[in-house]
Amino acid sequence: MFRHRCRAPLHTRVGVDCIICGNLLYSAIMVISSIDMKDGHVVQLKNGRDLVLQRDDADDLISDFNTYGEVAVIDLDAALGNTDEKGNTKNTPLLKSLLRRGNVRVGGGIRNVKKARQLISLGAEKVIIGSAAWNADRKTGTDPILNTAFLEELVAAVGKQRVIISVDAINGKIALKGWTETADISLIEGAKEAEKYASELLFTCVEKEGCMQGTDMGMVKSLRDAVKCRVVAAGGVNSLEQIVELEKMGCDVQLGMALYTGKVSLKDSFIGCVDWEKVGGMVPVIAQSTAGEVLMMGYADKDALAKSFETKKLTFFSRTRSTLWTKGETSGHFLDVKKMRLDCDRDTVLATVEPNGGTCHTGSWTCFGADPDAKSNMERLYQTISERFANPRPGSYTATLNDKRVREKVMEEAEELTEAEGKDEVIWEAADLFYFASVLMYKEGVTWQDVYDELDKRHKEK
Fold this sequence. Notes:
By secondary structure, this protein is an alpha/beta fold. The chain has helices spanning 58-65, 76-79, 92-98, 113-121, 148-158, 187-194, 217-226, 240-249, 257-260, 266-272, 276-279, 302-311, 378-390, 403-419, 423-443, 448-461; strands spanning 31-38, 41-46, 50-55, 71-75, 104-107, 126-129, 163-166, 169-170, 173-176, 181-186, 200-204, 230-234, 252-255, 283-289, 294-300, 315-318, 323-326, 335-342, 349-355. The strands form four sheets. An eight-stranded parallel barrel has the order 1-4-5-6-7-11-12-13, surrounded by seven helices. Strand 16 (315-318) and strand 17 form a beta hairpin. The two termini are 27 Å apart.
């Protein structure tokens, strides 16, 4: 999904310059929640130095934050170089556990391509490059600004779209080494060079970081005007009004202290960034299952979106009855909200949900088909197996399978698959093998998503 920041009525396809304003068309995120880690804890620091708060509920935080948008996970110890001989910190186990818990970007101490590739293989969607991107030894205006050898190798390895470069600044100069030093590189000069190697720039006004006094809007505007790529503003943002102002400026926002202190809520931020004027007070909401099936479409006003977030049950506004209605309030077939995302133009919401039965009022699984059941897939098979063990039915074969027997059946079915001849036989034997493999996985607490993640990791390691 991509957004045309200049609001011109015409634009070309994504990934190229706009034919009206010349700006690059790029995808939108809106508000990004930050989980900063130090000594194995979630922390918030003032000016990157002074501890203001510490928490140990990272799992709960990412589950909540991912409902509203992407999450930035930052290893502050790695940024400061406090690593062991293997490059790990006290935060490493926690970091790895969070990487597949949502749409995660990760930063802090990423100084070589090997580490960047590893983090992406473990589930990070993007990597944030800080000090390693810059020529810290720059002495004169003729010296290189960037560590181009590293950045070229990085882009070749993971792709420009996965790279974010931090253009953090202190008094208008690029800040390095966990904000403990500055380079002789101006913010604007550095940003113009950095965007050649990144899909977006993360700007933190270090003087404002953690101070809850608002960010430097003038500096953000200068940066936004200077580059064509996406800009994410961080450091001091302290109100919904400022988030909306930055959104209108064409910037996304990364929040930390404002979230943890309750100064700003993600619910209000999400709702506040919908283009309500454009949609006439009613934003289309597309409900999609976690397996990617489109289930239904309805409309929501501000109150309906707020109720969806508060109850975790997808809620719409009924235009025929002029009232809110929560899907399933009569049938019991609720749509449990897992996450909500605004599209690039801020005029459509995509809700990822888990359905509890058929979605359509006709009883069909979706409003776009007549089948009363969900399509077969590995997740549905796994759920059925889980239900058979939790609530055994009389005559249930699945419930009779103990550990020894299911392993014997996996071996037996694998052999029969290798001996199968012709398409029909292969289909039959493969179905048997997948079934018994799923039972074995369930007994060992392994899900199909775990398997998909491992396959994804292997793919990205190559």
